[in-house]
UniProtKB/TrEMBL annotation:
InterPro entries: Beta-prop_WDR75_2nd, WD40/YVTN_repeat-like_dom_sf, WD40_repeat_dom_sf, WD40_rpt, WDR75. Residues 659-684, 708-753 are annotated as: Disordered. PROSITE patterns: WD_REPEATS_2 (PS50082), WD_REPEATS_REGION (PS50294). The keyword Glycoprotein does not apply. It comes from Cyprinus carpio. This is WD repeat domain 75. Keywords: Nucleus, Repeat, Ribosome biogenesis, rRNA processing, Transcription, WD repeat.
Amino acid sequence: GSLDGKYKVQRHGLYHLNFKVVSWLQVYSTRTEEWLHSLQGHTNQVTGIALNPANHLQVYSCSADGTVKLWDFIDGILIKTFIIGYPLFAIYVSEKHEGIVFLHIGFQLVAVHLPKSAEQEVEAKELSAVSRHISPNPSCTAFGREGQYIAFARNLQLNVYFFRKQKTYSFSLKATDKKGAKNAFTCIACHPTDDCIATGHEDGKIRLWRNFIHKKEYTYSTQHWHHNAVNTLCFTPEGTNLLSGGIESVLVQWQYGTGNRKEFLPRLGGSILHVSTSSDGQLFCTSHSDNKITVIESSFKVCGVIQGLVKGDAVLTDLMIDPRSKALVLNGKPGHLQFYSLLRDKHLYNLDIVQQEYIYEAGLDQFEVVKAAFDIKGYWLATVEERGQKSSDLEFFLKLWSYDERTQSFVLNTTITAAHTDRIISMCFSSSEETTMLVTIAEDGQFKAWCQEDQNFWSCDFVGSYHNLKPTNCSFSADSSLLAVSFQEVITIWSPDTWELLTTLCQPPGVIRDLCFGRLSCSKYLISTTTRNLLCCWNLLTCFPVPPRMNIIIIYSAAMFVFKPNEPRPLFTHKNVCSEKIHRAVFVPREEPLNNCDESSQWLNRSQLYFLTQNMDLLTFSTATEEDRMLSSSTRLVIDDSVAVTPFYLLLGKHRQQQQKLNTPSHQAADRPQQPQGSLLHTPAHVLPPASVLCSMFVSSLLISNTGEMESSEQEMNSEKEEEDSEGEMEACDSQQELRVQGSVDEVTPKLSKAQERELKRVRKTDFSWMAGLIASKP
C-alpha cells in the first residue's frame, strides 16, 4: 500500500455481488484506524498502487484488467482511466519522470507515457521497453537517486539501468557462499540521496552496493540479522535509516552509515511482507501475512492496527456463527479463534485457545486449534487443540469455555487431557435449551457424551460404539431428541435420554463424510454426503431415502448447488463460482428477511451464504435488492423526516422554515437545490476540518437573521406614515368645517397629539384578558 501522513491506501479484492469478481482500493485513517471509503472501478485484481509524485492527494492503481486509474483518494473520485491493454502486475513512479509510469507487463518493465486528454478514458499508446528480464516479485524493482536509474534483480543477478546513458550494468552472485547460504535476491531498496542500493537475500543477509556507476569498481558490504529470507526493505525519506522485515515478524531499523547499529520492534503478528514510510518520515507502515496493517511512529512505537479477516495457512475448524454476537468464527492467529463481524466488515477480537507463545519458525511442530463448536445459546464453546502428525506423537486437549458477561468474552472452564485415546474427528452440542450436552467422536472407534456436573464442570456421561467401526461424523436433531452418528457407511440413530440404539440406515456406496439434520418444516429429514461425491436425504419417519434412487447428485469442487431436503432437483445452480475449490460454507441468518426477491433468489430471503476457498478468500452471494439498498444507504446524506423533533428544532427550525418561505419566491422554490441538512452528522469526525473552522460557521447558522424583522418594521413605519398623512388631511378638513360652524365660539375643545393617538391605538389593541383571571383569583 501507499502511505502519507494521514491516510493509508490499501488494495483489496473480494468476490462480491452477483457472482462477479470486483477489486477495489480501501482508504483508512492512520489516526483512527477507521475505514473511510473504497475506490471501486477495476474489474479484476488490483496488483499495485503508487502515490502521484506531482500530487500526493492522488494515487495511481494498476490491475490485471489492463488499466491504470488515477484517483483522488481523499474524496474517493476516479479522475482518469488509462487503457493499456495488457495484464499489469506492478506500477512504479518517479518525480523526475513526470507523466510517465513504469509498469510490470509479463517479464518486462515498460515505460508508459500517459497522454493528456479531457476524456475520462484514454488509451495509452506510447510504450517503450526498459528491460525484458524482470522478476515476478514487485519488491525486486526500485528507483534510484532522484530517478536517475532503476535497479531490478532476478535470481542471482542485479541490474541497474541508467536513463541518461541508456545502459544496463549487471552484477552477479554465486549460488551459494562458502558456508552454503543462499544468495538469491528477494527485495531491493535504493537510497533517496546517495548512490547506494540495498538488497535482501534468501539467507537473511542485507547487502549495500556502492560504486556501481563504474561497472568494474563496484563494492558491497554485508549486514546480517534475519535468520530467514528478507521480505522487504525501505529507506526513510531522509535516508538516515533502513527498515527491513521478514518471517520473524520483527521490524528492524538499521542506522545508515554506522555499521551494524540497529533497533528492533518485535511481535508484530504474521510475517512482514511490505514496509512503507510517510513522505515526512513520521510514520512507518507494515503489512503482514495475516492480513494486518500496523502503523508505527518514527519513535518505534505502534500507534495503530488495521486488521482484516485473519488469513492463515489453513482453516481447520468449520465456519461458525457466534449465537450472541452473530460474528463469523474460524481459525485466526496461530493458536487462536477469530471473531469477525460480517455486518460491519470488521475484525472484532482473537480468542487465545492454546495460551502458548507461538514461534515463527518453519517446520516447528506447535499446537493448533483443529475443532470448535458453539451451543445453541452461545454460552458454551468447545475446542480441540492438537499437535503431532503420527499417532505415537499425537497430543491433544478438549477444552470447554463459558461466556463471561463481565468481560464479554469466553473464559476457560474445563480442560480434558484424555478425552479419547486417538484423534478427535468431530463434535456437536445438543440443540435443547433446557440441558446442554456435548458429543465427541474419535478415531479410537468411540463416541462420548459429556454433561455438566453439579459444580458446573464437565464429565463423561456415556460411551458408545458400533461393531468396532470407525465413526466419521455426528449431528443432533433440531429438538435434541435424536442423535445421529455415522460409522463408515452406516448411520446409527440414538436416543440421548436412554442411549438406546433406535435404528440404522444403510448409506449408498462411499464412506460418510458429512451429516446434518433438517430444520423447521424439514426437521424430519437427515442429509448426508459420502467420499464419492454423493448426496443422500433420509426421511426418519419412514427410514427410506427421499425420493428413492433420485437423490444421488454429483457435487463439483467449484460449483454451488442449493437443494430443498425433500426435492432432488436443485433450486439454484452455479458451476463457475470461483477458480478454486470451495473449502467451507455457512448460512448466516439475516436480522430482517428480504422482500421482493427474484424467484431464483428466494433461498436468500432469511439467510445469506458465505463460503471460503482454499486460498482463504471469503465469498458471498447477494441479490439485486441488497445492492440497491446498500447503494441508496451509502449515497443518502439528508436526514429523514422520521427523525425525532427536538426542542432545539422547535426553537429554531420553524422560524427558519417561515424565513425561507418569505425569502424564496414560489416560482423559484422548486428550482433551487436544497442544502443537505445535517451533513455533519453523516460525515466521519476524523475527516472533518478542525473545530475552530467549523465553530464560526455553525454558530452563524444558528443565529436568527434580523432581515425579516427590519423589513416588517420598515413596512410598519411606511404604513404608519401613510396613515398619518391621511389622518392629517382628514383633520384639516374637519378643522375647516368646525371653524365654519363654530366660528363664533370663543373656547375650543383641546385635541390629542399624533404621537399620543398612535400610542392610544396600540394600547387598545393589546390583549389584557389575562388580567381578568389574576384579579378574580385575589381574595
